[in-house]
Amino acid sequence: MSDTREILLTNDDGIESPGIRALYDALSEVGNVTTVAPADDQSAVGRAMTYEVPVEEHELGYAVEGTPSDCVVAGLAELGPYPDIVVSGCNEGANIGAYVLGRSGTVSAAVEAAFFGVPAIAASLHVPQSQWPRDTSVEEYEEVAEAVRYLVEHAPDAGVFEEAEYLNVNGPLPSATSGAAEGRESAPADAPERTPMVVTRPSHVYDMDATRDDGVVTLHDRTWEQLDGDTLSDPEGTDRRAVFDGKISVSPLTAPHTTERHDALDDLAERF
Q1: Is 12 annotated as a binding residue?
Q2: pLDDT computed for residue 15 by the predictor
Q3: Of 125, 133, 164, 215, which one's alpha carbon is 20 to 30 angstroms from that of 17?
């Protein structure tokens, strides 16, 4: 069909991950999917680039010996039809909170697309710290994949990307949506099966520290431990609060490093 969307699919967990398979299957229902993804795990590489990357054909598309940003540039410029939208994920582990956005390879792929002027969606599945590491299955990603499929199908025509450059989607494990952690209110018996989707903003909670032992410094990210507790300090409307409450979070975002003029800096520059 002439109106079929061209979709470029990538991730940072690698092309063999169950999350990208779940997205590939869901998105193939609404568009022509070209997968250009790292050949192996490239988690937390941010927007790092390799610049020269070997490429091999794969049953889903192309496996690239490089980073998610490499994959987006290669996919847009060379390897596939020019897409209407780029989708990155579905990541094993949430990418929530403002401090995570620049670290995540999953989100960075969406940001790379945004700099090209192509709408993008990053998608991730929250895995509780108490269950990490976990061998996730394709089925566990299906609900987030369905949310992304819905957004790919409807968000462009609804004008969403006239305001946002990319969407950051995070969902809970399916088993966590029926009542979440002990002490939280359970869902009503007659509640619909589909997990609710809410529009959010990135949380600004940041709780990292480091310890030194015998010449080795270990970094500790305690924000993930908070999500396993019975309460959370993040306010309503934030991405972390939504996932903690068993909802699918969608944050409309713009590419970073936008500049605003400030009188104080103008004054300093004039006096230099």
Answers
A1: yes
A2: 97
A3: 164
* Dist CA 73 CA 80 (whole Å): 11
Q: Sign of torsion, CA 203 67 121 84?
A: positive
pLDDT at 115: 95
Q: Look at residue 222 in the predicted model and tell me its pLDDT.
A: 87
pLDDT digits (tens, 9 = 90+) for 138-194: 999 999 999 999 999 999 999 999 999 999 999 999 875 544 443 344 444 454 578
Residue 1 has pLDDT above 50, yes or no: no
Contact 10, 109 (CB under 8 A): yes
Coil, strand or helix at 258: coil
Phi first, then psi, for residue 109 (nearest 5°) are: -65, -40
- Please state, as a whole number, how many other Cβ atoms lie within 10 Å of the Cβ of residue 266: 10
Q: How many Å apart are CA 4 and CA 30, to the nearest integer? A: 7
Instruction: Tell me whether residue 190 is annotated as binding.
Output: no
Burial class (CB in 10 A: 0-12, 13-18, 19+), 246: buried
Range of the domain at 227: 5-271
pLDDT of residue 116: 97
- Domain total for the chain? 1
For the domain that residue 206 is a member of, what is the CATH number?
Answer: 3.40.1210.10
Angle between helices 18-27 and 142-158 (to 10 degrees): 40
* Full-model pTM: 0.90
Q: Residue written as tokens 């996932």?
A: 243
Is 168 annotated as contributing to ligand binding?
no
